[in-house]
Write a structure and sequence with these properties.
Radius of gyration: 19 Å
Order of helices and strands: EEHHEHEHEHHH
Structural class: alpha+beta
Low-confidence stretches: none
Helix content: 25-40%
Shape: globular
Number of strands: 5
Oligomer: single chain
Number of helices: 7
Length: 213
């Protein structure tokens, strides 16, 4: 994953980096020792990082890594899209719009898929966009006691961010849709998958207990 944001005031980051625009690369190798180092070497060779926190971790530690920088209780507003390509124009758009966030807590995450995700038949599951190599999740974040003036600005920032990438968009991941994205459900599933899900819901949940659309 690649995260574009201002460095949070987290205890594991040097004070001099707090508030500084950064590109955070999250890497994972499901291996140990020399094998893991060999797999991660190409990413580690990209340049000299401000901080290197890559090390062997138990799975439980992986699950709690973001707890300090994405705490419960803040306002969060999401906009998202799949991206067919990652050429220079897309990268320029990603970085330019990331820098426009007013809130130091807002950020954008770019997920790199492929591999086993892309090898599965798109018709086999509800997630149909398996050939799309990248998914972007833009998070507008502001404090719980902040008046909504900042929230309005950050929500507009998130919408503009994704709208600027319209020429490159391809689908969206359903778990990255927000309350005002109901019209995008067909974009998330595709017509075939959504029809199958609707048939299952009529059979298994005719009273709509599970919610959804």
């Amino acid at each position: 994953m690649v995260t574009l944001r201002r460095a949070p005031a987290a205890p594991f980051l040097p004070v001099e980096t707090h508030g500084r625009p950064v590109c955070m690369i999250t890497m994972l190798a499901l291996a140990e020792g020399d094998t893991a180092e060999r797999l991660l070497a190409p990413l580690r060779a990209l340049g000299r990082p401000l901080l290197d926190l890559v090390r062997l971790r138990p799975y439980t530690a992986l699950q709690s890594m973001t707890d300090t920088v994405v705490p419960a209780g803040r306002h969060y507003y999401w906009k998202s899209t799949g991206l067919r390509e990652l050429d220079d124009d897309v990268i320029d758009t990603l970085t330019e719009h990331a820098a426009r966030a007013r809130s130091p807590r807002s950020y954008a995450i770019l997920f790199h898929l492929g591999g086993a995700v892309a090898e599965t038949d798109p018709a086999a599951t509800a997630f149909a966009h398996r050939a799309v190599p990248h998914h972007l999740n833009v998070n507008a974040v502001w404090p719980p006691r902040q008046d909504d003036s900042l929230g309005a600005v950050e929500r507009a920032w998130a919408r503009d961010y994704v709208a600027a990438l319209a020429p490159y968009q391809d689908g969206v991941y359903v778990n990255f849709l927000d309350r005002d994205d109901r019209a995008r459900l067909s974009e998330a599933f595709g017509a075939t998958a959504r029809a199958r899900l609707a048939a299952l819901r009529r059979r298994l949940d005719p009273d709509g207990v599970s919610g959804g659309a």
